[in-house]
Design goal:
The complex is a heterodimer of chains A (about 120) and B (about 900). Chain A contains 5 helices and 3 strands. Chain A is α+β, with helices and mostly antiparallel strands and about 120 residues long. Chain B folds into 5 domains: about 55 residues, no CATH class; about 200 residues, no CATH class; about 220 residues, no CATH class; about 160 residues, no CATH class; about 170 residues, no CATH class. The longest helix of chain B has about 40 residues. Classes of the chains: A alpha+beta (about 120), B alpha+beta (about 900).
Amino acid sequence: MSKQPADRTELLQGTLDMLILRTLLFGPSHGHAIAKHIQRTTDEVLQVEHGSLYPALHRLEKKKWIASKWETAKDKNREFKYYRLTHDGKKQLAVEESKWKRLAGAIACVMWPAEEG
Amino acid sequence: MFGRRRDDELDRELKAHLEQEADEQREAGLSPEDARFAAQRALGNAALIKEESRDVWTWTWLEQLGQDVRYALRGMRKSPGFTAVAVISLALGIGANTAIFTLIDRLMLRMLPVREPRELVLIKLIEKGRTGDSLSYPVIQALDERRDIFAGVAGFSGAMFNTGPSSAVERVSGAWVSGAYFETLGLTSPLGRLLAREDDRPGAQPAAVLSYHYWERQFNRDPLVIGQTLRIEGNPIPIIGVLPAGFNGAEVGWTADITMTLAVLAQIQPERAALLEAGPQWLRVLARPAPGLTRDQVNSRLAVIWPGMASVAVTPKMHPERRQALLNSTLAAEPGGTGWTPLRNEFSKPLMMLMIVASLVLLIACANVANLLLARASARRREIAVRLAIGSGRGRIIRQLLTESVLLSSISAGFGLGVAWWGSRLLVNLLSSGRRQTLEFDLQPDWHVLGFAIAAAFITAILFGLAPAFRATTGGPGAALKEDARNSHGVRGKLPPSLVVFQLALSLVLLTGTGLFVRSLWNLQHLDPGFRHEGVLLMNVDARRAGYEGERLAVFYQNLLSRLAQLPGIQSASLSMNTPLSGGIYSGRIAVDGQAPSGNAHFNAVSPGYFATLRTPLLTGRDFTMSDDANAPPVAVVNEEFARRYLGAGQALGRHVATEGDLKSSAEIIGVVKDAVSYSLREPPPPAVYMPYFQRPKEMGVATFEVYAAGSLTQTAQALQSELRAVLPQTPVQMQVQPLTEQVGRAMIAQRVMATLATGFGVLALILAAVGLYGLLVYTVVRRTGEIGIRMALGARQRQVQWLVLGGALKLVTLGIVLGLPAALAVTRLVDSMLYGLKPNDPATLVSAAALLAAVAVLAGYLPARRASKVDPIVALRYE
């Protein structure tokens, strides 16, 4: 548990929710797959702590941004709880995305001012 | 159950996750077993994930609360001894506090059960900078007409009425009220009508309103009572209505079973008709401001109009100085929603004192329970460590431990409410003992009391529960799991002994208070009041109601006196205007030998034989005789204090004394008697002048007969009563024949009550502290069993082992005394004014309190010490 590769980055507070919503934009998925997808698409830079993944999923479900359903995976004989983006979730994703863009832009202005000039 | 289903789902979800992860690891080439472990490592703390995911759903805290409560109840059932000790000590502590609060609430905080009580104001009169609670009848009537300021102004005063047929006259408590009383309060009658302004006009027909309780008790709630008559002071008075249940008059603590208007006072008690004039200020005043007016506006309007109205408060008969003072007086409106009572002045300080004492006892009880919890938490350290290790959050465990504390204190508060129900009655009985009229309060617990008990329960739970809960969860799982099993039973650290020292120190404070009050009472009981009360009976007689006046009254009293003196067993009989410690005084300025008035003295008018009956020694001169009557030259007897203060070193006999009101008739001093207390036992005897009762027929009125009898006081009392009934058939059944001893006892009642209560709380504190110390020592012995075994194996004697434990106890109690002494000195200074004959820093009291505490500490240490010395070294060492 204590060994963390140096090139892995901790997720910023609150961004996990956005990433989960974004991942689910591709279609319904279960917890394990969501974590794996985030790790793979970021070249293992972002490590999703399962300790925060499941509470986050339940939090989003409670806010009705995602909905869940038990289904058997196509390729395996195993039941998974599939999460799917709701209409509210889609709207929320747009909100988070624009917020994040503003934040990233602002941080960039501070960090690399020369590019602006 | 919803929660259970969600739990299962979460389990399935995580299981699926683990299996999927394991599959992938296997595909990556790991063995099935390694793959499973790798998957578990990747997932991390499954219990924590479950807990946090569960927490997302808000119902969890309720669910957890349910779990915690069930768990706590199970724990309590498993250790009944602990639970009983904790609940009993907390219930007593919370109960005592709640009982005292109940009384404080009823006396000072509770609103009158009338319409919009918060609007009501009390009108007070400020005269020469002194605020008085009472106004005269004409002033109240004049204020009631100021509709620009008041919707209504009501005057009222408590009274006792001789009620019923002449064969069975009873004294019933009641009230005189002004006509606007019920309208001002906004009350309506459930039966008949209440008194109104028309009933308070000169010449109005007398009418009585009954309290609901009296109607219930006396008339069995008969609705036909309206229009019937009730004999009051011998007059048939029609009953016109019944008060709503719950309202017993605007004077808190005084139940007015019969209410009548002031205007009819002159018809019913003619001898008191002068009370309706402007002179006597005896009515308390509640007013309701005109709609929309605030209290400030009332005050500023009063300031404007009163100077123009103040003339209603004076009469031409008044002393010019007093008339001027009244013309220059001001009125003030103060918040009046809680009504009026003289008890507030009398009891607010003792009650606050009691509240402090009771909270100290509660603190001691809290310290006890905290220590018990600490000991238990230590015993449960392993359990808690295991729970921390398998992933419970620390906050979650603290919450659970606090739930146990709150549950414990809530159960205690439940029992405490029972204790309070009983305790508040006991307290009222104690406080009203020795009064002519018992105090009456509605002591049913209401939301005020309930709220107080709940708040007390929560505060105590936090006080005793927080520290143990935090300590139990510090250090993490590792340390606790590594410890050996036996050690984990011990009570470690400095907290438990400090709590015990704290308890002992507080107990010392309370014991010191107990000692001070008990010794004050002893001092009062053993002081020489200057008269002897044993064997003396007093009987109050007022023959004016039977129509005797002037010369006839004097003859009546003289005849009665000689009849009483001839009763069997009577050694001596006399009568007087006043008796020592009756609660009343007549005092005024005196002038000696025709000079200008020089100072104050107490007066009494007494018949011949008064000093012999009360056994007050006559030092020089002679007693009065029957020939010192209205036709004889005026004479007087003075006491030593009077002679010392006003007559100087010179001969007292033959000199003259006059009262300020009657400077012309100067009386010759014919005797000097020993000093006797007058108004209060606590005050040194004031200078006193005694005049012959029958020399001043104009001032005659009510008389107290006193007889000194050998033999049974009860028989003598019956003889006195039948003697009285023979000549005054209108005498009430419970006509007051009472032993002088009772009157003296009444003068000590406050002291006795404080001593009783202080003793109760002192003993309670001592027991709680002893239990705390005992518990700590028992745990210490258990923890050190191994060490004691080794010592004994190496040759330590039983006595040395005992000393080991007792020494510990003595160390703690010494520390407690060292810390408690300054606290006791600081706290007892607050009660200085309630003590008699000693100072709060009385060394003897402090030393005996400390000695008692030390003795109890040794007693509490004795059992654990014996237990330690009975340790079998072989058994103890086999443990190692």
